[in-house]
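Hi R.,

Here's the input for the protoporphyrin IX containing FE complex you asked about:
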Amino acid sequence: MTTTDGPLSIDLFTDESLADPFPVYARLRATGPVVWLDTAQCWAVSRYDDVRSVLADWENFTSDQGVGLNDDVNAALQGTLLASSPPLHGTLRGVLAEQLSPRGLRNLDMDLKQRAREIVEPLVARGQFDAVQDLARVFPPTVVADLVGIPDEVRPRLIPWADAIFNMMGPGDKPRTFSGAELVREQYAWLATVDGSVLNDGSWGRAIYDAAEQGKIAPEQAPRLLSAYTSAAMDTTINALGSAVWLFAENPGQWTRLREDRSLIPSAFNEVLRLETPLQFFTRAAVRDVELAGVPIAAGDRVMVMYGSGNRDDRHFGPDASQFRIDRDAADHLAFGYGMHGCIGQGLARLEAHAVFEVLAENVESFHLLEPPVRHMNSAIRGLESVRVSVK
Ligand code: HEM
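And here is the predicted structure with protoporphyrin IX containing FE in place:
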């Protein structure tokens, strides 16, 4: 394998890189559009335009051999929505789209703002709270579990399960990658026991099993689709909310701006996602020998699509790409991916985040960090373990 500039001995999966990947990303972007990483045995695609090109080109860069960096996770993912191609992909996606598409969400009969008030207002009344433990890890899991109809006894397991699966996306030789293998087995064991009847009547989860009964999908697909909710909807949204409060505490002027002009809430959420992209990367496999930005990629090679790096690319977002500016037009960020596998849950994620931002804006004049935030370490997810703030 060749590279644009010879192999780079960059390791994206050390604790140091995971805690602050941005200097390494900048080095990768400066080195070339496509760089072979010996440490992860994949091509790193780090610039905005190239990340988008790979995501758009599913015929050459497929997900159907998995989207992680090791053979075990890739084998386990095969045939899921995330790791499939047409026609299967369209069939599976169609089932979730009934609830998650913009049209489906118009029928959502849950008052998310009221839900946000019930969680946020008691925290604000306390004067100080942990924006991750008390808010970000409470709101999305409760909302999603209610919508999907997850039984009460399973709910405390949702966050550890999701965290374990995202860890498993890492390179096979890193201890963190399989550190949650037992949790992943536990989740699969639970999924295998689910028949539609344990999921509440009328719930989104039950709708998946109804689709199987109606012959729209094969019965064995139902638990795998259910796992889209129990994994993909958790760590992502949770970490977006935790990072948001941290960014607002660090940038008080931006919070004041948002409070003065609530119409900035959607662009503020995009800006949080751009800057602190919750899912930092996935991979694709080259289906055939193909050229990418002038670099030959051999059939079977892994290509890492680096959403988090593309989102900091000053070629696209300008020289202040590393700054948090809520009035930036960041709507074309890559945090929800792009193209055929682009996040199907983004409408729900936006509704959740906008509701939380609105209720915070109504109740909080300013955030003050009580101590430096504690980073949560995960192979693929960027986020925080704890952000303790006092509020006025
Ligand atoms: C801020 C929150 C979220 C972020 C940052 C996020 C990020 C992403 C990204 C980057 C992808 C693209 C994967 C790829 O390129 O292969 C994706 C796909 C997906 N997301 Fe999300 N997501 C979020 C919330 C959600 C929610 C709330 C749900 C479910 C309710 C969800 C369900 C899915 C599913 C099922 C896919 C696979 C779609 C496909 O392969 O066609 N996500 N998400």
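One thing worth noting: The longest strand covers residues 282-286.

Cheers,
M.
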